[in-house]
Amino acid sequence: MATVALKDVTKVFRTGTLAVDRLNLDVNDGEFMVLLGPSGCGKSTVLRMVAGLEDPTSGAVFLNGEFANDLPPRDRSVAMVFQDFALYPHLSVGDNIAFPLRLAGLTAERRGERVADVAGALGIDDLLDRRPGRLSGGQRQRVAMGRAIVRRPELFLMDEPLSNLDTGLRAELRAEISGLTRELGVTTLYVTHDQTEALTMADRVAIMRKGILQDVGTPTQVYGRPATLYVATFLGTPRMNLLEAAVHVHLDQHVALNLGEQTLHLPWDDMRARAVGHYHGERIVVGMRAEALTPTAPNTPGPVLHGQLRHLEHHGHESLAFLDIGATAVVVDEAAVAADGGAVRQRGLRQFGRVVRRIAGRSGAVGEEQRAVASRTPVSVFPDPGRHHRRSAELAVRLAPYPAVSPGQKLAIQVRTDALHFFDEHGDRIDVGWR
Ligand SMILES: Nc1ncnc2c1ncn2[C@@H]1O[C@H](COP(=O)(O)OP(=O)(O)OP(=O)(O)O)[C@@H](O)[C@H]1O
Ligand SMILES: [Mg+2]
Q1: How many CA atoms, within 13 angstroms, populate the side-chain half-sphere of residue 352?
Q2: Residue range 252-276, pLDDT digits in tens
Q3: Per-residue DSSP letters for 343-355?
Q4: Whose CA is nearest to atom 12 of ligand 1?
Q5: Which atom of ligand 1 lies closest to the CA of 42?
Q6: Nearest protein Cα to ligand 1, atom 16
Q7: Residues 303-323: pLDDT tens digits?
Q8: Packing angle between helix 350-362 and helix 367-375, nearest 10 degrees?
């Protein structure tokens, strides 16, 4: 089977675009790795470098532990499936799937067996005589998959294979693709900008932004302990609530998180209190996902926030309430996501990276290194008070569908402090550690 290792892989196109910036990523044998990120973040470029269709500007690609930068695509035993995978319109479905086998010189009999196997696995055995023009989008994509699988590659590279399909079909094929690749035991590198695909299909997810790896881990890890503010907001619906908080330590009692008009207390016996306590007298970002917030009676003891309902959003199975709690929002936009400042190449390398950056900055490194350091210069997520308006936070809270509440009404919200997330002003997770 196959492993992939990318070591400090950088791609700068001739136009000067830095598409991939010192990427380090390992894909284990048989693993389903999803590359997730917004449009233009460099996902396809990574895939094309693994396939050998694009040369890295620097760094190394290893396939099965062997240095593969110079290996031609045909010697890589990879199969690619694209979003707009073109089938041969004049060939039947069966001949389309058999095409790579014909090129490989297999006999008609062997080809027939392999095609039947694959068509059976994909549930398209009754379509073998049809032409692609008479298939639905989902069926066409299955044929494309079939043509990729039939070669029995060691490595699948899939670039948004489902993005042209409607929602129902996507959900169905999602399950099929991940089921099939696991059954075959084929290592898979799957590109998408859809967080649902990433979280449902992946063994591990690698999240990229502007060519830089932000975080990598199992779906539970990247969702539950996002390494940066960027990852925190990219994953999860509704988006994680991000509030500005001033930190005050009351030794041996708690750490007070002053959110403006209200204060939350992180008990001293919470393991993270000390890490957060280092920011005594400073501002940090407190992240709260909707699942950490539960509507409650106004006089409930414990950590409760009070707010006024601004508006409601009905989603059928639930309604979202947006509350004004007198706190300041932290907006993660293009300018402010300083997540790059501390982007984690690999969890655990994080502190090391910081030290390297500090040393590089001090010693006045030149050329390539200096450019790279500059592009990762931390920016504060807290707006400069002279130049920006402070935006008041609207806390998103889940309610039962169509609740009997109306705008203007006061609501009390119980907060699970153990489910809070903390980030520093550069967008890096504060309570970092091995997970
Ligand atoms: N052949 C090329 N020449 C110059 N620039 C390129 C080339 N291919 C890609 N780029 C640029 O490199 C960056 C990364 O592109 P890439 O296609 O890898 O993004 P992506 O994450 O796959 O985006 P999408 O989700 O839109 O497919 C973009 O800024 C893109 O414009
Ligand atoms: Mg792409």
Answers
A1: 6
A2: 899 999 999 999 999 998 888 989 9
A3: --SSTTTHHHHHH
A4: 19
A5: 18
A6: 42
A7: 999 999 999 999 999 999 999
A8: 120
